[in-house]
Description:
The protein is mainly beta and 283 residues long. It has helices spanning 2-14, 16-19, 243-248, and strands at 27-31, 35-36, 51-56, 59-64, 70-72, 76-87, 95-97, 104-110, 115-118, 121-122, 128-134, 144-145, 155-157, 166-172, 177-181, 197-204, 208-215, 221-229, 232-241, 255-261, 268-281. The protein is elongated and about 70 Å long.
Amino acid sequence: MRRILYFFAFCCFFSCDIINPEEEIPSFIELESFTLLQTPNTGSNRENIKEGWVYVDNELIGAFAEGKPFPVLAEGTVDIIVDPGVHENGNRFTPGLYPYYTRYTTTVELVRGQTTVINPEFAYRDNITFKFIQDFENNTIFTADLDGNDETRITYTTDGALDGVSAKIELDVDNPTFNVGTNASYALPVTGPNDTYLEINFKTDVPLSLGLITLDNGGNVQQLYGQILNSTPVWKKVYVNLKQIILSNPTPPYQVGFAATLPSDQSSATIFVDNIKLLHFTE
C-alpha cells in the first residue's frame, strides 16, 4: 500500500507540467483611434465608430473598442483586417458592421508579450448613392412645414454649432411642437438586401423623433417616425437603418422628417441638428 502511495505522489509531482502545461504568451494589438477620411462629395467626415471587428490572417478575433489592448495567439508577420462597427440606431444592444464604410487592411509584425498599435482609417465606399447631404451651411431642404407653426421653423446658428453652421429649433410653452419634412421626395430601395441609412448629428434638450413620410394607397399622408433620439447635452452621431420602415410601407417616394414636443415639465427646449445624410448602395 505504501508503494502505491509513493508511486502516486511521484506521478503527481512529475506530471504537473502535463496536466497544467505552461500557458502560451500572447501578442497584443491596440486599436488606438478610428478615423473616417475626408473624401470628395461625401460631406462631413465625423463618425461614431464604436468597435473595430478584427481579423488576423483572415480569422475573426473579435470586436474591440479604441484604446483597449487585446491578446492574440499569433506572432511574426500577419495580415490585419478591421471592419468598422457601429451601434445601429444609437442602441448599444444592436452592434453591427456599417456597410457604407470601407474596411482597413495592414500588415504588422507581432511580438509575444508586446503591444502593436494600429490606427484604422476608413472611407465611404465608391458604390454609394447619397440622396442628399444636408450640412446647413447655406440653406436647408427641410422646409415642408408639417406643424403649421411658422414660429418653430429651422434657423441657423454658429453659437453651439458642430461644424460652422448648424440648424437650430427652439420650443417654448406657446410653441411646444415642431414637425418638418424635406421639400423633396426620394425613391428608396424597397426590395432586396439594400439598406437605406440616415446619418445625423444632433444635440437636443428633448427626445427627437425621425423617419420617413409617404402616402398610403388611399393618398393619405403617413408619418413613419420609427426612431427616437434621446435628449443629450453633447453632440452625438447615429446611424439610423430605415429598412424596416420601408419594408413595412413599400410606397415610394418618401420624404425625410423629424419632430419634437416640449414635455409638460419643461418651459423651453433647444434642438440642434447637422450633417444629415440619406444614403444607400447604388442599384
